[in-house]
Q: What sequence folds into this?
DNA sequence: CGAAGAGTTGAAGCTCGTCAATAATCGTGG
DNA sequence: CCACGATTATTGACGAGCTTCAACTCTTCG
């Protein structure tokens, strides 16, 4: 039942799996370049500059905190390998997870403005990060407008993801939330090429993280996941995620995927100059 | 009630009311300048450029839609007077409100990147807006780095507010959500000087908006508000908001206010260069 | 005045949280 | 290698918070 699904990706059609690893195939490629490459075409010069920017690397262990609320730093971290999580605690001990950082993601945009962080970021896995000096990053942005533009786009994308999460947490029920989130995270993993040969994903999240992501309790998450399994939708166990029924899952979660801006050239769907439409309050 | 509004500034004006209206007092001041002025000190040249940018104005009516999902435009709207709301619908008819736009706020950052909007924005009141041609805006940003920086900050602030909302919707119960939101919106109104002489606020939101903001039903919002009233916390009726117990409300909602970045020079609270702290998973 | 929107109230029920106990799994050290 | 504690996952019983449905009132506005 679920091997059949799983093999779809790997066997016959590797297309979806790696369509974002254009030319180079050497494993220790720079994930930042790959990521920005999705938003703009980078020249050799620009790629070199980015490579130089990431030269200082560091290995860190599971559970370490990258940035802490209220801190300012003259460095920005770039995730090279591993997964980090961004979150805030409430005084009552509850935690809201605000995002997951995968390879290629920057530990925040405070390089854009003098601004301290309002949350923590820490590691869900052992990881390797690059430590970018902000002033160097700034110079690169100044020297290469394309790079700056691409960086701004990552920020806009990030915000789009936040809005999507708000929608998810605010308006959907537990099953839908989970379904949507699973679609999102697997999509991101896929765009990074991090799909196992059997079509599953290795995602280092426990049910605790899932719960704190969607404002649910662990108990309830557990029950939902079990039902997913029983229904043949998703098999998530031992941090191995296998999606058995992609269609069903997307439909349940109302997942669109456009907002992730992963290598999609947004078709200009509608072009009403500065016109303001007539009164219209979209009747639900 | 609406005219008395304008006199607030001049009359007996309590301190808190006008601490963000530095020098000029002519009523039709440019709200964009005032807003950016909170992030940076603008030169006369810069102010002129911004004024020129906003020269094309337009009056619009309640319920009109400023921007529509999926559209791209070569203009950006700036709210001069009135209130707009940003939202998305789910296919099941549920709506999540993603933000409120008050005078001085820009109808989005798609001027930064070639990027279509993933939501609608429409008016909760009659309003006056300025229509900024994106290419002009871009030139101004190029010519005046200070302005660009300030604009980026508004974007970062916007994102901080989104995170705060996510926390709110995800982790608090109905009363806390409401309390938090009321703190936020009143704070923003206050920073705009839009406080009535009696200390109340005129906020054009119905309970429907409140519900869609926090992922609750109108019925439940109604009950909560009534209890607030009974408890002497807040009196919100007929779009007139009076906060009776600021302390109590803030405590209930866990409201901090720092994230709004309203005229606060962020003290560099903590200065650990690029150091990575020791393992520490903050035990709740 | 009549219609439409906004707010209120009550009853009933479902989703999800809470509490608590048990398994399963993992990392660590003896 | 097995034993140990710690984390993670599962299960059941129970209850609370919030939703749903429906009726009714009040206000606004043409």
A:
């Amino acid at each position: 039942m679920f091997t059949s699904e799983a093999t779809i990706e790997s066997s016959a059609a590797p297309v979806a799996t790696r369509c974002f690893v254009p030319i180079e195939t050497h494993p220790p490629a720079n994930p930042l370049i790959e990521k920005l490459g999705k938003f703009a075409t980078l020249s050799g010069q620009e790629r070199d500059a980015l490579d130089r920017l990431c030269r200082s690397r560091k290995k860190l262990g599971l559970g370490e905190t990258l940035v802490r609320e209220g801190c300012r730093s003259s460095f920005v971290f770039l995730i090279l390998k591993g997964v980090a999580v961004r979150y805030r605690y409430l005084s009552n001990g509850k935690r809201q997870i605000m995002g997951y950082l995968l390879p290629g993601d920057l530990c925040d945009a405070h390089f854009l403005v003098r601004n301290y962080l309002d949350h923590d970021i820490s590691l869900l896995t052992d990881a390797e990060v690059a430590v970018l000096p902000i002033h160097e990053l700034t110079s690169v942005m100044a020297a290469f407008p394309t790079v700056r533009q691409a960086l701004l786009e990552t920020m806009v994308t990030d915000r789009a993801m936040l809005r999507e999460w708000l929608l998810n947490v605010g308006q959907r029920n537990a099953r839908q939330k989970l379904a949507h989130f699973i679609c999102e995270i697997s999509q991101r993993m896929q765009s990074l090429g991090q799909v196992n040969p059997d079509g599953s994903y290795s995602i280092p999240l426990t049910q605790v993280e899932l719960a704190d992501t969607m404002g649910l309790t662990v108990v309830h998450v557990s029950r939902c996941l079990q039902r997913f399994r029983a229904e043949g939708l998703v098999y998530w166990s031992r941090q191995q995620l296998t999606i058995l029924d992609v269609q069903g899952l997307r439909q349940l979660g109302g997942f669109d995927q456009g907002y992730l801006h992963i290598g999609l050239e947004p078709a200009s769907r509608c072009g009403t100059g500065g016109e303001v439409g007539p009164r219209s309050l979209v009747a639900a």
